[in-house]
């Protein structure tokens, strides 16, 4: 069983809440669900829509071909009716116009009799939909009670019951074995941070990173953490560095424009060797770009952020399950190696919902790697064999120094050339140690057995995995750690492939450039998409078949 449903309407009409409810119900009933969200940068008006794919087999992406369109306005029909499958149909208010197969419902008299606001139309259509799938009315009422509750639950249930009565059973819904987990990339990053014992999350709201701010704020009391919104991204990152210097596990979150403002302070993290995790949720650019849409165009920006030469660890999960694990690894690497770690996501991963049979966490240590009772001769920048110096925090004895200036082992500023060389070598020496550590964390994953190879990173993973089902003799290499780069592992896969294809959500193939720099291998076959929308499997399949 596989069905694709599109729900569309204006901002404020509840398309996202409705689609999430439907996805959550099917997921908890044992089905695999992928929920894609598309919306403009408007609080009211415009055109919002969600695409929900429901299947009895794993699914990781959406499609532009629909079995059913739930239309909350005429614009939804005008924009998407062309995507209906041959046997597809539309359901909505009777006043909507379409030449496609249409199930009209006289919505307005129902709202008037209920003395309800227009947004209640969603609940009427939910009731109709559940009847269509053959779910029982009792099941629907139970799910509504469990997931909405509150003062308006009686109105919601009454509305859905009316819609249920107007529907007709067509499908024969049967719950499958095993409840599944329905989770977005944002919730997954928040979960990974909590599991890592985060102490403080500081941010200034910026789509699509803002959801982390809300998720963690809701968990403050349960997990004894502090969530702060400050006046700018510059304030955010500097405050986080101060908290980290004092011993807290600190994380900040932003998107491209805010990330740009944080650049100087990230260089301070490099010079001061202050642990910091930065969550970068990419959206389109340059400048404000298209604020609520997706892209993978900030990869080189992340790898090269900040002035000067120091190690930036850049990791990019491909789905929410990975996001939990990679977030844990980010905190582990940042604190163990006193390093800047940039966790790269994008709008598509952050705001889409995926289904998993189970959710796992990493086994990496959640230690803070802070020494207790340092000696009077404590040297915070001690030159060591692996480049990693012991970390102490203020208040435990000797003065603990950190500076943005070049310094000696004690943190005293200096302009002597000898110390420039020593400290630069010390900081860069850590990269070899960190690379060895990262190589144990599966920085490269390979899916499938084909002789030909698709290469990708981040959120393209879902569409590529779904595309593999229809691509003979192809396998997929996902590169999760971009810096330090897993050169040997990547080179091995490239050299053992007959044909190599790069898939990226940007215009220039930025990962391809990094691969060329690190391995000498130039990927000529590229599937690049930069219309601010994520890939669907059909695009990948059709383009690759032309090579």
Q: Can you offer a commentary on this structure?
A:
The chain is of the alpha/beta class. The chain folds into three domains: 165 residues, Pyruvate-ferredoxin Oxidoreductase, domain 3 (3-Layer(aba) Sandwich), CATH 3.40.920; 175 residues, Rossmann fold (3-Layer(aba) Sandwich), CATH 3.40.50.970; 101 residues, Rossmann fold, CATH 3.40.50.920. Helices cover 37% and strands 21% of the residues. It is built from 20 helices and 20 strands. The protein has a seven-stranded mixed sheet, sandwiched between helices. The chain has a six-stranded mixed sheet with strand order 2-3-1-4-5-6, sandwiched between helices. Strands 15-17-16-19-20 form a five-stranded mixed sheet, sandwiched between helices. The mean pLDDT is 96.
Question: Could you give me the name of the CATH homologous superfamily of the largest domain?
Answer: Thiamin diphosphate (ThDP)-binding fold, Pyr/PP domains
The name of the CATH architecture of the largest domain is 3-Layer(aba) Sandwich
> What distance separates the N and C termini?
32 Å
Strand content: 15-25%
Derived from helix and strand composition plus strand pairing, the structural class reads: alpha/beta
- Number of domains in the coordinates? 3
Residue-averaged pLDDT: 96
**What is the CATH topology assignment of the largest domain?**
Rossmann fold
Dominant shape:
globular
Uncertain parts? none
Largest sheet features: 7 strands, mixed
Radius of gyration: 25 Å
Number of strands: 20
Overall helicity: 25-40%
